[in-house]
User: What shape does this take?
Amino acid sequence: MANLDIKIREAELADLELILTFIAQKSEFDGSKTFFAATAERLQQALFSQPALVRVVFAEVAGTAVGFAMFYATYSSLLTQPCLWLDDLFVQAPMRGMGVGTALLKHLAEIAESKNCGRIEWTVNAKNAPGVAFYQKQGARILENIRVCRLDENAIAQLASK
Assistant: This one.
């Protein structure tokens, strides 16, 4: 692993296009580019309204963003503690394996610790073996017995109208 000077910083309103670029890159990496529907307007509302629903941090090397994490607060009734949900973590291909992802996760752990969070959770594609290995190396347990349940926009509308 290279000895890089990695700086983590909070996203600012001026970063909307950069955030969209990272989301697009991640959706392509995940093979879900056809589902990409993010817009600057919706991101601005989620990230910069009061209270902000979502936060984004960037990992920068030599002043250039090379990775990002998008996350938000959740709550565990079982723990009776706040938690963090990591919605996206992405590092550009040339920078993978150089400590950027670790720096982003460490930053989230620091935030979680400062807020007395009981856990940080996220999903990883089971076919993303390097991602699974990376997360396990960071101390994450991969929960095989839990499945993601999802209602998309159409399913929400259908259920709400019953």
Observations:
- The longest strand covers residues 64-76.
- Helices lie at 16-29, 40-48, 100-114, 129-137, 153-160.
- The CA atoms of residues 15 and 21 lie 10 Å apart.
- The beta strands are 6-10, 55-61, 64-76, 81-91, 120-121.
